[in-house]
Amino acid sequence: MSGIFDSLNIAGSGLVTHRKWLDAVSDNIANINNATSTDQPAFQARMVQAQAVDYGSGEGGVQVAGVQFGSAQGRTVYEPGNPLADKDGNVKYPDIDLGDQMTQMMMAQRGYQANLSVIDRATQAYQAALQLGKGGA
Predict the structure, then answer these.
(1) 19, 60, 65, 70: which one has the fewest Cβ atoms less than 10 Å from its Cβ?
(2) Beta strands 90-93 and 62-69: pairing type?
């Protein structure tokens, strides 16, 4: 009986993983313009690492294996008017590429939508099977 719901469990694990990926990307984009003083670490971009669970068994799905952090070194920018500027007029920004983050966001959104579509179709199929079991058409 548990085999009936395996597709829902697998797609559900994909939803959770893609949501965490979207969370990380949105944090990265939200902090892309956060300046710090040059003696402080810059915001570190987060990158979600996913892994298959029981690969090939048809029962596993996917899970977040960990989060990798980008460099705290950041990039130094000359902004003498910034209140965080050092004596040379420099501040530190995260080393995050907005184009890359937008690409990551699109991939995570598409993966989320695909898993949501699997759940929707599986639910419809299970509901149709229940109707057949009741003798309905």
Answers:
(1) 65
(2) unpaired
